[in-house]
Structures are given as structure tokens and as C-alpha cells.
Specification:
Distance between the termini: 30 Å
CATH topology of the largest domain: Uridine Diphospho-n-acetylenolpyruvylglucosamine Reductase, domain 3
Radius of gyration: 20 Å
Shape: globular
CATH class of the largest domain: Alpha Beta
Number of helices: 9
Number of strands: 20
Bound molecules: flavin-adenine dinucleotide
Largest sheet: 5 strands, antiparallel
Structural class: alpha+beta
Helix content: 10-25%
Oligomer: single chain
Length: 347
């Protein structure tokens, strides 16, 4: 286990903002988790898990121990379609590998940045597919009693960008998370079950449109189409610091949606289990946030849901901008946006 005191977190968050941790431990093997958490306890430090750091905002420093999950390994049984991946594997590379060996279904989730271990935390989803459709279970290290456990799909209680793992870690409001955390659970590996028969999912309109000239799209066609759309639509964190969609799409009641429709002509919407889902990007666009700039903190010019670091902004400034956006949507529409990104740090 590699340990660094007073660690610089800029290389470990896709916003690329400056922040420091009291200590950082790179975990390359699951067995290192026990001594790492024992060290945190000994020093009285709270613990934060990080994979690729593509879904976090450091609004300030983290006065604790960051565990950087870097354990590797993928086991594939093509006959049964069972795939087991260590938490530190890169998600997009895993999608590509499964496609190469002829196991399908993950192609709609191509190019989502970050680690395999974080994928179940918010039940990653894109282009009409969510992780939970292929999820079997995960291996977990519970820091409370240093035990290793398994969790099934039912145990994870997946829903839209959510799971029990996220609920135990994340605030639902825009307040930065302050230590200590009650229940820290580390995903060590996850197991998926993938079909061997291709069954491309083109339920997402933009994806169907992208492939309308292809007579019988294969999973490889879907993979490439998803990568093309994402490269067109989303900023690459290697060039412009960002964490993808900053807020979740709110789900409102049918009555609220009718009120919205009486004020705006045909607001976009999607059916959801609990009501009607309205794109947060559309709400923010109506409030004039697309391309908005506030110093070096800003909003991507092609997507009002993506906060960006145009170079040299701080996590605190991005956090303030996020609060301004939330307040603006609340006063215009009476809808409170919830962050999808995890906000960390005290200031
Ligand atoms: C350009 C861009 C596009 C994106 N598009 C999408 C998208 O289409 N769909 C989507 O769902 N997301 C999207 N995201 C968000 C992000 O990629 C996903 O949430 C991803 O799963 C985060 O992985 P990570 O390893 O970077 O997690 P991190 O940012 O490191 O961590 C995220 C959360 O998971 C926890 N965590 C990390 N590793 C573990 C572990 N091993 N065990 C337990 N908890 C852990 C962290 O503590 C934190 O709470 C996008 C982000 C970017 C920058």
C-alpha cells in the first residue's frame, strides 16, 4: 500500500480542482483495506473512497484518509456469461472487453468515465440502459467491523442514479459532506451476467436516430454510436474539467407537470415509476445557464447540466455556482434539484 501524507487531490478529481487530503492510500489488493482503515482509526481520520474521481466535487480539503481503489482483475466465463471485475478496473475498458469476447448489453454504457467499483454506487445509466439490468452482486469490505460480505442486487436497492451504497455516503442536498461518516462500505468487486445473444437496445431516441441508416445494428454499431454521440455532446475531462451531469433529473407529480405544461409549451418529459421525469438540463436552460460564466467556473455551452472548470477555478466557486443554479430553478419552477455529484470538503 502506497501512503502519501498531505496529498494533492488535483490529479484524482475530473473537475481538476485543487484540494488536499490529510493522507492518501493507494489500494492495489483487497487485503490492504484492513490495515488502511486501522490506520485511519488510529489517527482518528474519516475515510473517503475514490475510484476515478469523476463524480465528486471537492468544495474544500478533505481532512481524512482517501482510499484510492486500484485493485485489478477481470474474470470472464463466456459459457455462462458471468463477468467478475475488480473495483479498480476502468469501466469503459470493461465494456470494450465484454464486447470483444461476445458478451453483450453493456454497449449503451460505453465511455462512462470512472471505475467498475463505483458503477453500482449510483447505478450508472445512459442511453436507455442502467447497470442494474446486468448486475448479480458485489463483494464488500465493511469498515465498521472489517468484515467481507456479499451483496445481491436486491440488497443494493437500485433506483435512478441511486443505491443503498450511495444513500449511506451522500447528502441529498447541496451541503458539502463533513466527516465523520457512519457506514463506510467498500466495493471490492462486482459480478455481472451478460447475454451471449446480441439484443441491441435502441429505446433511447437519440441513439435510434444515430443508427437509423444501419439496417440491422450490431452491439458493435451501438458501442460506436454511443461513443460518437458522447464525444459530440460531452466535454472530455482531460481537456475541460467536469463531472458530467451535475444534478439528477427531477421527478415531479402529474399535477406539477400539468402546471408546468400550462406555462411552457410542450416541456420535455419521460415517464418514471413515481411520476414524470423532467430533464434538469432543460430547466437550467430556461433559466439561461447554458454557456454561463462566473470567472473560471462555468456551464458547458452545449449542455446546461454540466458545470465546467475553465482553468484555475476552485471547488468552492463551482459549489457556489451550483447553489446559484439550484436556487434559480427553485424560484422559477418551484422544483428543487438534487446533486448527482458527491460534494466533499469543509470550508
Ligand atoms: C464526462 C462525464 C460523463 C459522465 N456520464 C455519465 C453517465 O452517462 N451516466 C452515469 O451514470 N454517470 C456518468 N458520469 C458520472 C461518473 O462517470 C460515474 O458516476 C462513475 O461511475 C464514477 O466513477 P468513479 O470511479 O470516477 O467514482 P468516484 O467519482 O471516484 O466516486 C463516486 C462515488 O462512489 C464512491 N466510490 C468510488 N469507488 C468506490 C468503491 N470501490 N466502493 C464504494 N464506493 C465507491 C465514492 O466515495 C463516491 O461517493 C459522467 C462523468 C463524466 C465526467
Amino acid at each position: 500500500m502506497k501512503l502519501t501524507d498531505n496529498a494533492d487531490l488535483r490529479p484524482y478529481n475530473s473537475f481538476g480542482v485543487a484540494a488536499r487530503a490529510a493522507c492518501l492510500a493507494e489500494i492495489e489488493h483487497g487485503e490492504e483495506l484492513e490495515p488502511a482503515t486501522a490506520l485511519a482509526e488510529e489517527r482518528g481520520l474519516p475515510v473517503l473512497l475514490l475510484g476515478g474521481g469523476t463524480n465528486v466535487l471537492f468544495a474544500g480539503d478533505f481532512p481524512g484518509l482517501v482510499l484510492l481503489m486500484r485493485n485489478r482483475g477481470v474474470e470472464i466465463d463466456r459459457e455462462s456469461g458471468v463477468v467478475k471485475a475488480a473495483a479498480g478496473e476502468n469501466w469503459h475498458e470493461l465494456v470494450r472487453t465484454c464486447l470483444e469476447v461476445g458478451l453483450y448489453g453493456l454497449e449503451n454504457l460505453a465511455l462512462i468515465p470512472g471505475s467498475a467499483g463505483a458503477a453500482p454506487v449510483q447505478n450508472i445509466g445512459a442511453y436507455g440502459v442502467e447497470l442494474e439490468s446486468f448486475f448479480v452482486g458485489l463483494e464488500l469490505f465493511d469498515c465498521a467491523d472489517s468484515s467481507l460480505r456479499e451483496m445481491s442486487r436486491e440488497d443494493c436497492k437500485f433506483s435512478y442514479r441511486d443505491s443503498v451504497l450511495k444513500q449511506s455516503q451522500v447528502q441529498s442536498r447541496l451541503q458539502p459532506l463533513s466527516p465523520p461518516q457512519p457506514q463506510l462500505r467498500v466495493v471490492c468487486s462486482l459480478t455481472l451476467q451478460l447475454p451471449r445473444e446480441p439484443a441491441p437496445n435502441l429505446s433511447y431516441p437519440a441513439l435510434a436516430e444515430e443508427l437509423e441508416h444501419v439496417a440491422k445494428p450490431t452491439p458493435q454499431d451501438v458501442f460506436e454510436a454511443v461513443c460518437r454521440i458522447r464525444r459530440r455532446k460531452l466535454p472530455d475531462p482531460a481537456e475541460i474539467g467536469n463531472a458530467g451531469s451535475f444534478f439528477k433529473n427531477p421527478i415531479i407529480s402529474q399535477d406539477e407537470f400539468e402546471q408546468l405544461s400550462s406555462r411552457y409549451h410542450s416541456p420535455p418529459s419521460f415517464p418514471a415509476k413515481e411520476g414524470v421525469k423532467v430533464p434538469a438540463g432543460w430547466l437550467l436552460d430556461q433559466c439561461g445557464f447554458k454557456g454561463y460564466e462566473k470567472g473560471a467556473a462555468g456551464v458547458y455551452e452545449r449542455h446546461a447540466l454540466i458545470l465546467v472548470n475553465r482553468g484555475g477555478t476552485t471547488g468552492r466557486e463551482l459549489h457556489q455556482l451550483a447553489m446559484e443554479m439550484r436556487d434559480s430553478v427553485r424560484s422559477e419552477f418551484g422544483i428543487t434539484l438534487e446533486p448527482e455529484v458527491r460534494i466533499i470538503g469543509t470550508h
